[in-house]
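Record passed on underneath.
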Amino acid sequence: MNVICFGDSNTYGYDPRGYFGGRYDADCRWVDILAAETGWDISNMGQNGREIPVAAPAVPVDTDLLIVMLGTNDLLQGRSPEQAAERLERFLSGISLNCNKILLIAPPPMAMGEWVPNPQLIEDSRTFARLCRALAERLNIRFADAGKWDIPLAYDGVHFTEQGHKAFAAGLLEELK
């Protein structure tokens, strides 16, 4: 099965303990754990700092599943949950795959931390998750809410810890059954 994981630094596997964009080891990144557990051919298209793109990427026709998790950086850059959801709808609508091959994952809610200095961002991240669910229903695509997977976050309130990646992988594997 050919899978693409398209997202931001939490898809990339960013290790927030370093300053230079380092990554956790493969055995601690959710994308690599998913590949190891399933035997699927998985492309990690995570990118540090990625906001929701204006246009959808070209997706190879042999893609069996496109997993999309975006929106956190949009909120951190000052967009409202509604603005981020509008951008996400435009992005997802431009993807040339059958809708049953797209899985939208709402990122887990942020927590107070170095990058999250106020509770409003946490509330916005929860609101965004609800908007993602409604968007997935409207577009008739698959949906998962990572907020239900108890993801441990690092000191910054945004990035997954190594345990967070493992918890994310476990939640996603359960969702894909």
